[in-house]
Amino acid sequence: MFELSPTSINMFLRCQLQYQFRYIEGVKVPPSSAMVLGRSVHKALEENFRQKKESFEDLKVEDVLDIYSDAFEEYSKEVEKWEGDKGKEKDKGAKATKLYMEEKAKEINPDEVEEKIEIPVDEELKLVGYRDIRTVEGAIIDFKTTNAAKKEIPFDYKLQLNIYALKDDSLNAEIHFIVKKNNPQIISLKHPLNSEIQVAELAKSIKEQIKTGIFVPTGLSHQWACNYCGFKEIGLCNYKK
Ligand code: SF4
Question: What pLDDT, in 10s, does the model give residues 33-43?
Answer without folding.
Answer: 999 999 999 99
